[in-house]
Amino acid sequence: MYRALQINKDDAGYRTELKDLDDSALPEGDVTVQVAWSTLNYKDGLAITGKGPVVRKFPLTPGIDLAGTVLESNHPCWKAGDKVVLNGWGVGETHSGCLAQKARLNGNWLVPLPAAFSERQAMAIGTAGYTAMLCVMALEKHGVKPSDGEILVTGANGGVGSVAIMLLAKLGYTVIASTGRPEEAPHLKALGAAGIIDRKELSEPGKPLGKERWAGVVDSVGSNTLANACATTKYAGAVAACGLAGGADFPSTVMPFILRGITLYGIDSVMAPIERRVEAWQRLARDLDIAKLEANTTEIGLQEAIDVAARLLEGKVRGRVVVDVN
Ligand code: NDP
């Protein structure tokens, strides 16, 4: 038996409950993992509350991230006792997931837990933090350098935004954090933001082109925010778009692209190839300040995850949430 959240959708409606499940409830897979820690991401919030069409199979255990120890393996790369991390691949969407004490997975989805991190720290990073790293890597690959000017980070108090601030600041970039919670400015500055702007400056419909300000952008908000970020990115600058916390639309024009030569990078963590994941986790081990990560993290238990998921979607959770599943 193992304890897990389980989502059901039937005549009684859509609901998430804490349950004791038999091992027969585990899905197919060649590696069984004893979960130590999981976490809550925006997508987990959508799954647990049913506010977005994330879960496509019922009953299903939510949770797109885990850190834990291999219990049994029929996969050539993994053996009992190995410490592993899982992010995405449809786990917690179509394959029962990680907000549980046990998970059964495809061994091809796992990456080794970096020696630099405890299981709890890996989940304080989670998909949100690993996606922030993918965004930073995209800006770097584009050639954006600290001397090029300010980097805008939107959704600053969220998981992606807060980790992006920490990473960019440690790499020497000047970070401007856009937030709807100006009262959190001291926290954002402690993470490394050089300045704060009110997200209202970006969230209203704007002009096709605005004054050039950003050398690069990490955007987890989408909609008008992403359009305005593109319109105010400097000539030949780059925008890494990974989220839709403000909306999935993109009401932009071609102007920033054809008159300023800016580049818009789409960032996906879910199906990212294993080599890019390993690189991102190695970079996180090198470029993330662990003390700041801890200050950005709240700890909860499995049962609490149901309520916290709803608060996360309301934009009321700061930084990252780790879930002690045991
Ligand atoms: P969080 O809920 O932790 O953070 C989202 C933040 O966005 C909030 O904290 C808030 O920051 C801001 N925000 C919330 N609502 C609005 C709104 N209506 N308008 C403008 N800003 C808003 O989520 P995550 O950081 O986990 O994820 C952020 C986004 O990135 C989500 O859309 C998620 O689906 C996406 N994502 C995509 C991935 C990918 O692979 N492409 C992977 C991971 C996440 P503040 O209060 O500071 O304004």
Automatic annotation (TrEMBL):
One of its GO terms (molecular function) is acryloyl-CoA reductase (NADPH) activity. It comes from the Bacteria. It holds the Pfam family ADH_N. Signal peptide: none annotated. SUPFAM superfamilies: GroES-like, NAD(P)-binding Rossmann-fold domains. This is Alcohol dehydrogenase. It comes from Fluviibacter phosphoraccumulans.
